[in-house]
Amino acid sequence: MPDMLHVHIPFSQFDQHFPLLQKHRLQPEIAFKWPDLDPTLLPRVKQAGLCLAAEGLKVTVHAPFMDLNPGALEPLVREATRKRWMQTLEFAEILHARVVVLHPGFDRWRYGGQSRPWIEACLDFFPPLLEQAERQQSLLVLENIFEETPETLAEVLRRLDSPWLGHCFDAGHWRLFAKCSMEKWFEALAPWMRHLHIHDNCGDRDAHLAVGEGDIDFSRLFQLVGGLRNSPTMALEIHDCEALLRCVDTVKPLIPR
């Protein structure tokens, strides 16, 4: 399979799904939730890293996101976010993860449409994480979730101006929440586009369907990807194993060579 392609695997299900990774030569994007970051699980993380290295499979990592927010105005929320994401980076280093996905999660409704305080909090939040990312050579990427336009992400990325920080374009979240075209999104964030999350839906819920089972125009998406200066890595976020394998076969021919 193409070297850039990964598949979503929850860390809590790694042992269950590792034979699937072996059989189909699938590179994982390992998703951590807060219980997975318990220090007593460190030996399991090390063992997973050894197993993947022995198979020659590269790794990306997805950090916890529930209730976390790097631009929160409440300092204790930012501190909790920093702690969980630093723990994630520690585990990502053990796994030799080349990408770590983070949910920034600006929601205009929560902030009364005022993005400035959230952006300024993010600018203060990220430098220590970027220093650690550079030390361990793991690229951090900010994923769109509730963002209706790309401007908040673009400003954070532009002002931090770090080679260790980029954007993860989540196609499913764009379909659900964005109020602009895919072309406009890529126009604004192309300089920082480093990773993709591939899953489909019909605009009604975050269904994580296989490509072609919703109404997202993935042919157009991959045309836009082909116009990027750097080829991004990508992860299939399909939560059903049979649908995931179908999606792998569907996506391979679409990936720009």
Walkthrough of the structure:
This protein is an alpha/beta fold. The chain has one domain: Divalent-metal-dependent TIM barrel enzymes (TIM Barrel), CATH 3.20.20.150. The protein is 43% helix and 15% strand. It has 10 helices and 8 strands. The protein has helices at residues 14-24, 42-55, 75-95, 116-125, 127-136, 151-160, 171-177, 182-189, 218-226, 241-251; strands at 5-10, 27-31, 60-62, 99-102, 139-143, 165-170, 193-198, 233-236. The protein has an 8-stranded parallel beta barrel with strand order 1-2-3-4-5-6-7-8, surrounded by 6 helices. Strand 5 (139-143), helix 6 and strand 6 form a beta-alpha-beta unit. The chain is globular. It starts with a strand and ends in a 6-residue tail after the last helix. The model has no long low-confidence stretch (mean pLDDT 96).
* Percentage beta strand: 15-25%
Could you name the CATH homologous superfamily?
Divalent-metal-dependent TIM barrel enzymes
Q: How much is the average pLDDT?
A: 96
- Specify the CATH class: Alpha Beta
Largest sheet: 8 strands, parallel, barrel
Strands, count:
8
Structural class: alpha/beta
- Tell me the number of structural domains: 1
Query: DSSP helix count?
Result: 10
Low-confidence stretches: none
Overall shape: globular
Strand order of the largest sheet: 1-2-3-4-5-6-7-8
What CATH architecture do you see?
Alpha-Beta Barrel
Rg for CA atoms: 17 Å
CATH topology: TIM Barrel
Terminus-to-terminus distance? 12 Å
Order of helices and strands: EHEHEHEHHEHEHHEHEH
Fraction of residues in helices? 40-55%
